[in-house]
Design brief:
about 525 residues, seven-stranded mixed beta sheet, about 55% helix, Rossmann fold, disordered N terminus, alpha/beta
Amino acid sequence: MTKSNVVLFVCAIFLQLVAFISPGIPGLVFAQEKIILPNNPPFIQKPKPNKLVVFIHGINGDPTETWENEDQKFFWPRELAEDPDFKHVDVLSFGYESECGPSLNIREIATHLYTTLDAAVAKTPYQSLSFVAHSMGGLVVREFILTHLQKLQVPLDSMVLLSTPNLGSSLANLVNAFCQSDSLMDLKDGRSGYVDSLNDRWREQFEQPNSVKPFHFAAGYELVPMFLVGRIVEKESAIAFAQQISAFKKDHSTIAKLNGLKDPAYTWVKGRLLKTAPSRQEKVLSEAEEQRYTEIIRKLQEELRGTDLEQALKLIAEDRLDEALALLSEKEEAEEKEIEKIAQTRFAKAQVLELKLRYRDAFEYYEKTLQLVPTNTTYLNDLGLMHNFLGNYDKAIEYYEKALASDLKTFGPAHPKVASHWNNVGLAWDAKGHYNRAIEYYEKALASNLKTFGPAHPEVATFWGNLGGSWHAKGHYDRAIEYYEKALKVFKKLGLHHRVRVVAINLAFARKKFESQ
């Protein structure tokens, strides 16, 4: 990639980041005339209220647009206020100025929140208070609780945070290079930053061994990634300190823009505000299902972005999977004579069916796809991934090997796609407990990527970690330690904290086993 291409790529990522971090605001928004005053928000009041629910948007958000799904004509605060179960509840959507340029920091926003709520409480003696916050708005809530809640003298009943970067955001470091803002500065991760200080104060107040939270704290997190970047707020950051958590099949923006009263996010948040038990009918995805869901969305973005199927991505990001399937079915019928487009449509349909956990139907469409283009290695590999995910390891190996043979012939052994296929075959053999076979394939994958990328690359470190795992399983702890240490060194250098933790735990176990021999 040339230097000019790198600049264009970074700018493209930044524009998309702003679009996602600024829900409801089209394009890039710098300092502008519109100023959202904290004393003039949408405020829905009842004749005899006993409780106040406060919605708080995130950075570059808006007290109306953040919570409004224009397509569905659904404004969340109003719909909640009109819900019969909240007939004695006032609903306030708090707003603050947060565009690029000079802006308030999180402490200052929390102070404005206190001023607004103090004025509201002076007029209406509420018996309790609850918050629903999106993104950075959750940090505002936590700052308010630590600094101002006691002065307000109204008990906090519950708080629900949606995609809040409780552990900071590495993306804020990138965006801040283009968009100078005090609130963005607060979001940066790393020691000695604002978020780290907030978390230290939170732990001291609420996370000590004998301390008890006097309120219910729930957190929801996004599963749909952003094109080229990934999820804006990762699960680990979104759920930190929460007592109850839930995943939503939405991106960072649409997690706050609901499709209606039956939207899973509405029913879950409503239940947390009422503190009812979660519905038995609620489908909770496993860790593996969540990871697979995100992987599928990324592949759909790569396949469909810029094509006439791009509208399906918007529907998927809003968790409107039935509508996405209907759209893809229409396209499939309209493109019967165009084999490649039909295959692309069928492949996308198979992946959406997999998102809906309709595995039998998904298999049918993967097979229909391969009937049209049986040598397409992406389709072969993905069917292998699905078999691997469901524990059909022999079938997974069969499809991986077909993809591997084709790409070896096309690209030769020193190519990332070939290395990925070798690694996938290794993972399947590993899952079957055939560690020697797994090691054989991992070593081929490692040799390929070492030649392509060199040793200081995350994929190389991943293969070292996989090798360490197989040697660990074989009981050769000295070999496992050797590979774990190599992987750990690279992940630390690249700042990939989640991977650092996983490898560090494995390394500690291997060392303990080795020392006990």
